[in-house]
Write a structure and sequence with these properties.
With 264 residues, the protein is an alpha+beta fold. The protein folds into two domains: 79 residues, Winged helix-like DNA-binding domain superfamily/Winged helix DNA-binding domain (Arc Repressor Mutant, subunit A, Orthogonal Bundle), CATH 1.10.10.10; 172 residues, Beta-Lactamase, CATH 3.30.450.40. 42% of the residues lie in helices and 16% in strands. It has eight helices and eight strands, in the order H-H-H-E-E-H-E-E-E-H-H-H-E-E-E-H. Strands 5-4-3-8-7-6 form a six-stranded antiparallel beta sheet, with helices on both faces. Strand 6 and strand 7 form a beta hairpin. Helix 4 runs antiparallel to helix 8.
């Protein structure tokens, strides 16, 4: 995956470099596994410590960052959750999607995830756990690369050519043994995904994992609202198993799309 949009430098007078940098600080703290010092934040966003410190103090004043009393490092505050309340609210559409996830999970025993396209990645917004003891599970807010995951390829495949080319320019870094790293092969893969209506990840993101993703459409939209995906260890996710999971997921999302069409 390439640089995050908030890392891109801009000379556009209508955009605030300061605001972009402050948002980058929020992203850095969100991705950190432990509180960070001002110096660590400065190093990551490539700026002076004094600049990073002012950003942190401003975000603390606004309530979005707190200082850990034990380590004296900085981390996100719970106020940040208010920003996602509208996106993750329990409206009727959200509940219909959740019912679909639960149905697929009940039939397969696997964890099921629902993700949407968010600029240069797919972001997980709903999930349900499975019953398998050995499972690969992700969390709300996790971001998936577009070029090497089933859900990323699926959502990108329905975008227009400029969007696809922009994703290719971000780079196609090798993540696992079968990652597609050449633009020509990647374009062909997206054409195939769009034609067949589903996507596989066959050792493209990790050498011991396979995934399948199918799109969720609403009303007469040409682009999917999002997509659901299932991921698991290759010991259980054999190719025949992957096809069975695909069929189950496609049956469920077809029914879901009909219900969403009634809401659209």
């Amino acid at each position: 995956m390439g640089r995050h949009p908030t890392q891109l430098k801009t000379a556009d007078p209508n955009k605030s470099t300061t605001a972009l940098r402050a948002l980058r600080v929020v992203e850095v703290l969100a991705e950190a596994r432990a509180p960070l010092s001002a110096s660590e934040v400065a190093s990551i966003i490539e700026t002076e410590r004094s600049t990073a410190y002012r950003m942190l103090m401003t975000l603390m004043e606004a309530g979005y960052v707190v200082r850990d009393p034990r380590t004296r490092g900085y981390r996100l505050g719970y106020k940040i959750l208010k920003l996602s309340r509208g996106l993750l609210s329990d409206d009727e559409r959200t509940e219909l999607i959740q019912e679909c996830l639960r149905e697929v999970s009940s039939r397969t025993g696997e964890a099921v995830h629902y993700s949407v396209l968010d600029r240069d990645c797919a972001i997980l917004v709903q999930r349900t756990k499975g019953t398998q003891l050995v499972a690969i599970d992700f969390h709300i807010g996790d971001r998936a690369a577009l070029h090497c995951t089933s859900i990323g390829k699926l959502l990108l495949a329905y975008e227009d050519a400029p969007m696809i080319e922009a994703a290719i320019r971000q780079g196609l870094p090798k993540q696992a043994r079968n990652t597609i790293t050449t633009p020509q092969r990647f374009r062909a893969e997206l054409l195939k995904v769009r034609a067949q209506g589903y996507a596989y990840d066959d050792f493209e993101f990790a050498d011991d994992m396979r995934c399948v993703a199918v799109p969720v459409f609403e009303a007469s939209a040409k682009r999917p609202l999002g997509g659901i995906s299932l991921s698991g260890p290759s010991s259980r996710f054999t190719l025949p198993k992957l096809r069975d999971l695909r069929d189950c997921a496609m049956e469920a999302v077809n029914a879901l799309s009909l219900r969403l069409r009634g809401q659209g």
